[in-house]
Amino acid sequence: MRKIGFLIIILVIICGCEKNEVDLETEVYLKEFNEFRKDFGVWSTFGYYKTPEIINTDTPTIPVKYEIDHHIISDELLKVYENEDIYDNSVHKKTDFYFPKGIKELNKIIDMLPEDHSWVEITDSIDSSLSPIALIKFNSPDGKILNGSGVLIDKNTVLTAAHVLYGIDGWNYNFEIIAGENRFSSPCATSTISNVAIPEAWKNAADTAANDDFYDFDYDWAVITLDENIGDICGSFGISTEVKMNDKVFINGYPYENGVPSKHMMATGITTVVHSKQIHHDLDSSVGQSGSPIWNSDGIVAIHSNGSTSSMVNGGTKITHALFNYLKDYHID
Q1: 185-228: pLDDT as tens digits
Q2: DSSP string spanning 65-94?
Q3: Model's pTM, two decimal places?
Q4: Can you give the residue ranges of every domain in the chain?
Q5: For 76-100, how does the pLDDT look when each residue is reduced to its tens digit (9 = 90+)?
Q6: Cα-flanking dihedrals φ and ψ of residue 49, to 5°?
Q7: Alpha helices, H only, the chain
Q8: Cα(33)–Cα(306) distance, integer angstroms
Q9: Does domain 5-330 have CATH number 2.40.10.120?
Q10: Cβ–Cβ under 8 Å, residues 236 and 132
């Protein structure tokens, strides 16, 4: 896996059961990582969570903000969506992909992906049916220009990581969604946004966290509602609750390497651990890919949220039944 420098993220999921071999291995790795962190002076620059890449850290003035609505998804609402007396959560669920250009070219790309999990650059997002993958540009609370990744899941809805929208310093702002961005051809479409939504659990964790204890990625997901229905033109990905250990999965997003933030990269690998709210994977990942879809033939199964030099702890927030039910009710027609 690629080294991510000081933005290495450690994901440790502790269940209420007896520790298995994977849990113990994770615990050992975290102990070693914490020792490394103490000696690495610049680690706390953006806190200990996956921070979207830095495009320009020298913004001279704070940009003027355009107003959007911020929605907090309550814990109580998500508990309703977990209620099996109301929703049948015993079966796997999925929504459909929508590819205006079909999947012929996409299948060609999938066949060419290296088995070593390294990236392939997508040079034509539209013809390859990968135009639902979106570059997300925005300003941090102190005015820096940043970006993350996301994916259209309906005509005007983008799924991403919560920390792309909200972190320990508060709300980011001035979001621009560029669907199908790549270095070699025009993007499919762009849109500003009307509102964003994050889980209450994520906001509370960010608001109460010190820089050294912000590790909870169970709720690192968010929804962006766009001003324009660009999904009608660019297409959209399905979502799915179906994922198992050792499943083949893909990741698409915009890693920031060598000063080029608009490179649309794709890789394949497998899931290495599947927990109730998170998964681990061995997909190649780097800074800037926060919010990237982790997907298989059934749909998006997780949102990439964190990574490290150990494949065991590269991970994403899982599409749980509660999240699926919420998205289906509120955001997917």
Answers
A1: 899 999 999 999 999 999 998 988 765 456 678 999 999 999 99
A2: PPP-EEEEE-HHHHHHHH-TTTS-TTS--B
A3: 0.81
A4: 5-330
A5: 999 999 998 899 988 999 999 999 9
A6: -135, 165
A7: 21-38, 75-82, 104-112, 162-165, 200-208, 231-234, 321-330
A8: 14
A9: yes
A10: yes
